[in-house]
Every structure is written in structure tokens, then in C-alpha cells.
Design goal:
This protein has five helices and six strands, in the order αααβαβββαββ. With 188 residues, it is of the alpha+beta class. It is elongated, with a radius of gyration of 36 Å.
């Protein structure tokens, strides 16, 4: 008690000390109010986001056409599978794609063509697909490249054009990188 007596006496006598303590208390209380307001705003935003997400989930859960969607997806998957190339082995997949691409390059009359077909790879996260990528470097002629691209798009088997680069130099050239996807034939 002896320690608090001089402090109380000083508080009674010194107006500036009392005013300073009141200002410090007001600042601390204001800071606490601001923190509580920020926390309240954050909670309201979280609540609003959660409520929006809940409404979206309820909307999706209340839909009744899931069976129709499933059938549409299976139909599209079936159509896509019919467009996949087929081969017994990875080597045959590579050879088949190279033979087809060589024939298309010849039909398009592409000059000085250099075709490089990479080894067949397994498609990541899909054990029932193989990927064969080819790189074609040749002299650029708009007509022949257009003819080749038309053949790629009209082919019943799926061929993906990864990149087409045209180099305008004294002798214009182009580089075409394409990929084909093969489905292994299942032995009956």
C-alpha cells in the first residue's frame, strides 16, 4: 500500500499526469475497438463467402439432370475414343504415325522435309493412352503448308497441332510439331 499512496497523491496533484493517462487509455481503447471492427468485418466477409458457396452447392445438388449429363459424357467419351489411333505396341504406334505423316507430307508436295518422330510415351495419369510426337522442318510455301494442315484436320484420327513456327528468312522455313494419341489394342 505504501507504493500506491505516492502514486495516488501525484495523480491528485498533477493534472498533466491525469490527462496523459486518460489519453493513453483512450488510445488503447480506440485501438481495441479498431481491432474488433476489423475482426468483425473479416468474419462478415467469411460468412458471406461461405453462404454464397453453400447456395451454389445447394443449387447444384438440387439439379435433377445428372443422369442425362452422365449419358452425354459417356457418349462424348465414346466419340473421342473412336478418334484415337490404335496400335498393338508402342513401336507400331510410332511407325504407324510416321508412315501416315510421311504420306501426308508427300501428298502436300512439301520440299526438303525433315521429319523426326519421337519415341512413344505413356500419357501421364492415363495408362490406356500413348502419345507420339513428331517434328517436321521444311521449306515454307503457303500452299503446301495449308494443304498439310487441311489433311491434319480432316484426318479421322485425332492429331493435335502443338506448334507451328514460320521463319521468314532468305529461304523461308517452317517447323510443325504435332502429336497423335494411341489407344493400345487389347488382345482378345
Amino acid at each position: 500500500m505504501k507504493l500506491s499512496e505516492p502514486l495516488l497523491t501525484e495523480l491528485r496533484k498533477n493534472t498533466r499526469l491525469r490527462l496523459g493517462l486518460w489519453i493513453i487509455a483512450a488510445i488503447i481503447i480506440s485501438y481495441i475497438i479498431i481491432l474488433m471492427n476489423d475482426y468483425s468485418t473479416q468474419l462478415q466477409q467469411t460468412y458471406h463467402d461461405t453462404l454464397t458457396r453453400l447456395n451454389q452447392l445447394q443449387s447444384v445438388a438440387n439439379q435433377t439432370n445428372w443422369v442425362v449429363r452422365k449419358d452425354q459424357i459417356h457418349q462424348q467419351l465414346g466419340q473421342l475414343k473412336t478418334r484415337l489411333w490404335q496400335a498393338d505396341t508402342k513401336g507400331l504406334a510410332q511407325a504407324t504415325f510416321q508412315k501416315w505423316l510421311n504420306a501426308e507430307v508427300t501428298k502436300a508436295n512439301i520440299e526438303n522435309a525433315r521429319l523426326q518422330v519421337e519415341s512413344t510415351l505413356d500419357v501421364p495419369q492415363n495408362t490406356q493412352l500413348w502419345q507420339v510426337t513428331a517434328k517436321l522442318d521444311a521449306i515454307f510455301s503457303p500452299e503446301t503448308v495449308e494443304s498439310l494442315l487441311a489433311a491434319l484436320t480432316k484426318n479421322p484420327q485425332l492429331v493435335v497441332t502443338e506448334r507451328l513456327q514460320i521463319y521468314y528468312q532468305r529461304n523461308p522455313r517452317f517447323t510443325l510439331i504435332i502429336t497423335a494419341y494411341f489407344q493400345p489394342l487389347i488382345a482378345s
